[in-house]
Amino acid sequence: MADFRKEIENRRTFAIISHPDAGKTTITEKFLLYGGAIQEAGMVKGKKNSRHAVSDWMEIEKQRGISVTSSVLQFQYQGKCINILDTPGHQDFSEDTYRTLMAADSAVMVIDASKGVEAQTRKLFKVCAMRGVPIFTFINKMDREARDPYELLDEIETELGIGTYAVNWPIGSGKRFKGVYDRMDDQVIAFEGADFRHEVKAQRMSIDDPVLEGLLPEEQYQTLIDDIELLSGAGDDFDLEAVRAGKLSPVFFGSALTNFGVEPFLEKFLGMSTPPTAREADIGLVDPFDPHFSAFVFKIQANMNKAHRDRIAFMRICSGKFERGKDVWHVQGNRKMQLAQPQQLMAQDRSIVDEAYAGDIIGIFDPGVFSIGDTVCDPGMKCAYSGIPTFAPEIFARVRQKDTLKRKQFVKGVEQIAQEGAIQIFHEPNTGMEEVIVGVVGVLQFEVLEYRLKNEYNVEIIREGLPYSHIRWIENTDEEYDYKELRLTSDTKVVQDFRGNFLLLFTSPWNITWAQEHNEGLELSEFSENS
Questions:
Q1: Does residue 41 carry a pLDDT above 50?
Q2: pLDDT of the residue at 61
Q3: How far apart are CA 364 and CA 294, in angstroms?
Q4: Which domains can be identified in the chain, with CATH numbers?
Q5: Which of 238, 263, 495, 525 has the most neighbouring CB atoms within 10 Å?
Q6: 74, 55 in Cβ contact below 8 A?
């Protein structure tokens, strides 16, 4: 039992979030280097470079140098088993990021030192705040000209409404970036060049070490002394409880590209972050140390390996221990089953898992039985974790296949991609799937849909934009409301989703109000909770 507790206590599961181009993928790779999980960083470049980030596996990601799906990576570091959930930074994929945050215990927010808090950072932060997820901030790209660090801290506090505590403090920026002052250890970590594996010549010295005075120009040394004095006099004390409650964000400065400050950040992060936390289910809070195994599906990905035409359901283990070959209960399917081919992933590399613990993320071969939000658990436990809400899409298009002979592949492809949560599909009541209405949060998702249908299902599509920008689920049951009897404006459309629920598509908020005023008792919802 001691080993069981120790295994769970050693788990750390966190998501990395950021605005595109803040350096999130680079920092993820540096973590993997320190853990010995990879030998060389594959820096994300354009099409000409054949080296790509290990966490980007879809061809379109490699071509464009962006992450469009969330990757799950596991590695060991200093006795801790670390699960990193790497999320798409692009706002068009915020729904995938949202679901990933549901599976994380804390978040690392990467901010560009010259740009500060950007639009997508705000949106992602709100999701974290909504769930009380502890946030650790890494202000990246200090090797380039950066904004004033006080200004950056102030912006985080003002824009995101969270307290900050600078755990370390930068000494200069750009070409004059000489290292950081570690406030907790009262030491300067001075860097003299770096390779792409580990920090090199990182000297730790006290602030009054004469060597430091020799390393820094006089004016920079004096600025550092003044900053230290100002921070200790004006700043609040560090409060670990406030960090774990999501009220205070520890802030670190560094440069992922040149390795300045990444490993010290990882070490401090592991000391401050918590092991797996209790999760809300229909039976109340489920303790991760409960010996009964339980997990929920937060992501489904088809065709990760084109040669095998496979489909993987990613599960976050919430309690107990998973053992390969053991029977589990699929709550939504109301049946006993074995989880087939359980695996842990390092981008495209997989290894079969014989056992895993609360906090771990495992991929399960899915023959089409799982949906996002599903719960699996020990047959004797029978609990269901609360569902993951579906974002309301804002952009709609009618989609059909170019070649009418490829209808079967078209239907299969669209349905599988929709089940992953990458798009939402609708159709008009009492019509088949010859034409579907696709709803997305961002326009780039259409590009990914077209790309994947062509490359994975060999289907080319015709896409026609639709004028709708708002969607509402009809909460009333069929007995209460017949959709044919609804009084709606001529530019409002009734559709069904692939679960058979009825929805309304609107061109403006005015039409939503009109529908509610002219249909007494009509209940509309902005979200659909998968359960």
A1: no
A2: 46
A3: 14
A4: 9-174+237-272 (3.40.50.300), 279-387 (3.40.50.300), 391-530 (3.30.70.3280)
A5: 495
A6: no
